[in-house]
Amino acid sequence: MPEVRVFPDGEALSRAAAARVATTLRSAIEAKESCIVALSGGNTPRRLYQVLAEEHGTRVAWDRVRVFWGDERYLPPDDLWSNYRLAREALLDRVPIPAANVHRMPTEDPDPGVAARAYEEVLRSHLGPRPRFDLVLLGLGVDGHVASLFPGSPALVEERQWVMPVEVPVPPVHRLTLTLAAINCAEQVFFLVLGAEKAAALAQAVMGPVEPWRYPASAVRPADGTVIWWVDEAAAARLHHSRALPG
Ligand code: 6PG
After folding, report:
1. pTM for this structure?
2. Where would a tag sit more exposed on the chain, N or C end, judged by fewer CB atoms within 10 A?
3. Which residues, in sequence order, are CB contacts of 49 under 8 Å at separation 6+?
4. Mean pLDDT, rounded, for 154-165
5. Using CA positions, which residue lies closest to atom 7 of ligand 1?
6. Does the C-beta of 57 come closer than 6 Å to ligand 1?
7. 44 lines ligand 1 (CB under 6 A)
8. Is the CB of 235 under 6 A from ligand 1?
């Protein structure tokens, strides 16, 4: 059963989650002199990234942190819709992380499949035979999608590859995404979920059966890792209170 932490609003959630992300990065660096994290896209993590830079930026040995992404829209890196641009502006340009430690998903090749395979090689060169991220940050779509794994996507049943090109039902249509096979190797997964519109998808993901095809987020169950849901009260409205801890 995953841990669910409920906060009154997005600001409280972002501040608490940012503090825990910083602690997680520091613990990994203390244990193995490095930390490998996959960042989330979408709007929800923006404030967390800002707080992480503003309040914790001097307390993390960023030269020991290696950053990847969980998914990317197949657009130029300076596009307003780019997940890389979001993280660069809110966090990475504001902390002393070496450029060589930041591995954005490439979106220049005309063929997203070529880009997916190239990124997989980069991941394998840094992670070895298993994509055991110390931390994966994820959001949740109203339809239960996670990263760019949408309901009914063929990528949901991929067991070998860690990165897949996908076409999704909402713009931007072309994307790259980690697969569940990769996500579920993580040591820790933090979901960030805000808003009443996510309440049904959150309840299904936390309390429902594992149904990857219909509810991809329900299948984020790291074999030897933990999941913490960072949610606001509006998103938690349909959770049984026994499942939710006060922030
Ligand atoms: C993306 C994200 C996607 C996002 C959810 C929630 O590239 O859009 O990876 O999975 O996390 O759609 O998005 P919001 O945080 O904007 O609600």
Report:
1. 0.97
2. N
3. 18, 39, 86, 87, 90, 91
4. 97
5. 41
6. no
7. yes
8. no
